Amino acid sequence: MPDPSSKPYRVGRSKTGLGLFATEPIKKGTKIIRYFGPMLDCNKKKDDAVENKYLFQISKRWTVDGSVRKNIARYINHSCKPNAESDVSVRKRKIMIRAIKNIEPGEEINYDYGTEYFKEYLKPIGCKCDACEKKRLKKAAEARAEKKQDKQKAKGKADKSKDKEAAKSKAKAGKPKAEKVKADKVKSSKADMKSAKAKSAKAGAKASKAKASKTQPKSAKPKSGKAAA
Question: What predicted TM-score, i.e. pTM, was given to this entire model?
Answer without folding.
Answer: 0.61
